[in-house]
Amino acid sequence: MIIDCHGHYTTAPPGLKEFRDLQIRALTDPAINPSKASVRISDDEIRDSLEGAQLRLMRDRGIDVTIFSPIAGQMAHHIGNAVTSQLWSEVANDLIYRVTQLYPDNYIGVCQLPQSPLVPPKSVIPELERCIVELGFIGCNLNPDPSGGHWKDRPLYDRIWYPLYEKLVELDVPAMIHVSGSCNDCFHHTGAHYINGDTTAFMQFIQSDLFKDFPTLKFIIPHGGGAAPYHWGRYRGLAQDMGKPPLAEHLLKNVFFDTCVYHLPGIKLLLEVVPTENILFATEMVGAVKGIDPETGYHYDDTKRYIDQVDSLTETQRALIFEDNARRVYPRINPILDRIVARKEIAHG
Amino acid sequence: MIIDCHGHYTTAPPGLKEFRDLQIRALTDPAINPSKASVRISDDEIRDSLEGAQLRLMRDRGIDVTIFSPIAGQMAHHIGNAVTSQLWSEVANDLIYRVTQLYPDNYIGVCQLPQSPLVPPKSVIPELERCIVELGFIGCNLNPDPSGGHWKDRPLYDRIWYPLYEKLVELDVPAMIHVSGSCNDCFHHTGAHYINGDTTAFMQFIQSDLFKDFPTLKFIIPHGGGAAPYHWGRYRGLAQDMGKPPLAEHLLKNVFFDTCVYHLPGIKLLLEVVPTENILFATEMVGAVKGIDPETGYHYDDTKRYIDQVDSLTETQRALIFEDNARRVYPRINPILDRIVARKEIAHG
Fold it and tell me: Is the Electron transport keyword given for this protein (chains A, B) (predicted)?
């Protein structure tokens, strides 16, 4: 089975944005009072939004299942306050839930958290719990910078994050580290802020002893781990200079990377320096880079093609990257995948 | 000839820090009034600081010349105001000048700029001009984030930077993009802020048309270009989605990368995806990573060893990386190198 661990509902029907626009207008016009009930999106609109885009691409590329979450760039935790983020997250997560119900064989949910700048992260626990326990989601996206490019909140190793980590451990779900849009002109959204967010989180994990306190806590750093694999020697050396244990011991039981690296040399580097046990297949399609690479004739984000071209991978390693690591990092995926397999067996007689 | 284009005077004698500490104390205690004349550093101290460190390592590794600048992490443009930065830059640059006078065969100067948060960059022009014209320096370090991890200033493509760029073009000197220390807890100094600064600058160049306005302006992005080469497909794709020309045309006549990547797979990737014409040899020793890599038995920052191991490079390509590109990117290095060569010929009879 091929599992894409990193997809956002970037093609969501216009009713989602209409709600969000209304919610943002309501911040300055109290006469507007959008509720969850005001979201107008039909099942047919959801089907249309996916059939011609993600679902078609998944079929074209041989991807069975996508771990699917709300649009990362539009989480925009910096807009409004914690109440704003709570309602917006509920709406965005409920829409993902509907996708998982309409396409239970193809989509498994991951939630957006109702973070807000300088608000203690424990405030997101109820929505996390609702999504995992009630909606059957298997993880969450955690924004290390709710201020949207101003980095005003505490580093991920700060104890202010601990109540959330305790809940993640209790629920046995991982968090993907994922910033949202940038409201700092210095940082282009997908070209700088995303990659910087990944690199920054990785270094925060190196400089701390977070995983001594949470030995079973798991994070996925997307976009191939930001700059980390390219600078793997730098990070091994920095950890060493700080007196930390080797990275394998220090954080590789807890930190995983996806394969959203959009060219073959980058994927080769990732596979060479990071243990295969720490790499999860992902595309983030339809996402940051939508075009076709003139050098290959295929979409930049068709990452499966790059992995398929790395001859040195054994079948066991391929299975780890495409399926087994996801099963280990997202334990709650297993019963869902079992049901998918059972349905397929029935369908095929 | 082997030219290391990226060295900082990290081993500067204690008199430098004593001056800086005094200057920082003076910010809150006006009775203290440190002047340039109060800096107490002897020539012997300078010799001692280099002979056992950078100079020894240069000899061990076969590096002839280092393009040398003040300690990047201590530029700390966020401390005090523009007046503070002016005096501190003069002191730091004057010390580099003394190094170049004591070791004219080994060190060539690059200056720190007296930037200050939210102060228009044209304010640094007099110190830039002094260093290039009077001290014989060949370039400068330009901090894209004088606020030290808060990214409060304008992106590098903003017109507020243009007067400085006009002067760089007029003087025919490049700028190395180099952030300083981080005063934002989220960003580890050398593990996150440095690499993010590089990635951010590269993306700022992609999203703008800066080099249409300044076709001869040249920047070196250090630390192997941050995350850029690892995500080269992403950046090619983002430029393409934005309707920009291919990177070769869009910015590779103006943007260069150094080789401060501290492991062989990273160097291999850099050499594979970035044209050889755009890569300048560098170590940044003694710098961010001081240890010995247990996997190789050599210093992480002994980047020459990695390049030497890449068999696919031709002799012409090696000459570009180790010497010729530096001569092209830093045109003012040429008469200095000519004099070094002439002295060596005389010395060898």
Answer: no
